[in-house]
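Sample 3 of the quickstart, ligand molybdenum atom:
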Amino acid sequence: MSSTTPRYAALAGLTAAAVAIGSAELVAVATGPRSAPLVAVGGLVVDTVPEPLKQFGIALFGTYDKIALLVGTALLLGAFAALLGVLALRRLWVGLAGIAAFAALGVAAALTRAGADAFDALPALVGAGLGALVLWAFVAGPLELNPWPWTSPTPAAPAPAEPAPVEPAPEPAAPGPAAAPRVTDPESRRRFLTSTAVLLGAAGAVGLGGRWLAGRRGVSAARTAVALPTPSSAASPVPAAADLKVSQLAPYVTPNSDFYRIDTALVVPQVDPATWELRIHGRVRNPITLSFDDLLARPMVERHITLACVSNEVGGDLIGNARWLGVPIRELLAEAEPEEGADQVVGRSVDGWTCGTPTAVLRDGRDALLAVGMNGEPLPVEHGFPVRMVVPGLYGYVSACKWVTELELTSFADFDAYWVPRGWSAQGPIKTQSRIDTPRRRNRLTAGPVTVAGVAWAQQRGIRRVEVRVDDGPWQEATLAAAVSVDTWVQWSWRWEATPGDHTLQVRATDSTGETQTARRTAVAPDGATGWHTVNVSVD
Ligand SMILES: Nc1nc2c(c(=O)[nH]1)N[C@H]1C(S)=C(S)[C@@H](COP(=O)(O)O)O[C@H]1N2
Ligand SMILES: [Mo]
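Result:
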């Protein structure tokens, strides 16, 4: 096969795939965004790729990892589609079988997602059907090229390509070098290229239109309509002295729009509070089902709690502090009456994600909340609207279930939550950490007084002391800003008389039990990074 001949067939394959994906997106407006094949297959990939590969992806793309995954899936799909187009020209059934295989993958991915029903198979089925129709039309039907570029120069047949007129200016999509076989019939070629262009455009418009419509069916209106109740136990006010207001230093309260987001969801779950339910079940004496209104009717507490991700590197920013409004989980558990030995509460999200929290932690009196409010607003959709868990002192992956819909009492021996079989520890207490926010690596500093400042946290224990050192010199005690509670980070600052040259700044914190952060650097897996944040600066 000459290298240029398959181009038309590849274009036909791509067009068929675009029609398939675009029409599937439109059907998914009715069946839900997670049943769209790209998203469903992407979700399957997220849940099944080996952990090292996923870490690599996150390291490479950071919080753009999801977009990268979708783009990657689309590129891969495009490559396969082009190949199928080429194969289909030789044997149509091979192309159709390929489409059927993709349909099966899409259907399987959509049906195995949490909460899927039979209708979720529709987008992939309808898409595959239309894709197959387009492929057939291009290869054997009304849109077929006449003749296909390489059907002419095969050795067996006399070559009608020879007397082909030399074309003055090849169109951009036309096959390459003049030596290659060409479509002899310009009329046919024009019709072919026009139909691919029209179909590609239509597929794009329908697909994007579908996404747009699906977005409009989201829950942002329902979210705006939520009236949060007044807490029966308000958060202690944040004293002005808790926020040093140093530039580059993270503010004491993280605005919702700046709050880090970590989850496995490729499309943000849209959970309608009108139909939301929480089931507390499993090994309990009194299973409970609550509606959103039931939840709002209960006494609410409001607390500042600093949430941290186990994947936060030393010095990283996967941490934020917010004022959460919610119902103490301890009270709900008291009503449900967990059985002896049910030492794990599994929080389950509408999308099937799970976290496992020690029952004892949820009952020990700390402010573990089923939260509905974040910094005075209903939870932002990407932070778990309408209801999520927030548990002070534990990393998010074992405690902070967003879009939560079930609390199941079980035991650690009986059930592994989402991240556990993927190599993360079943227990995830937050480690004491400290971070230098200013100066930063690339700041231009001048000799003289420089404010070194940052945050430190040891949820549930509280921070007793923060120390800074320069170039392995003696540790110097930093000034702590006012602490609001043991469950939130505390800002610190230290005045440095900077001298010209290159310097290394380091920070370490001591929690209120007297334990100082270890210098030993460990990776984030399996249960959180350790080590001292170190910043190299140069001073003019
Ligand atoms: N449903 C669901 N909830 C989830 C997760 C998830 O993947 N899915 N990730 C958890 C992790 S690892 C963290 S660190 C926190 C982050 O919460 P945030 O995105 O609101 O900052 O959510 C937790 N809750
Ligand atoms: Mo996390």
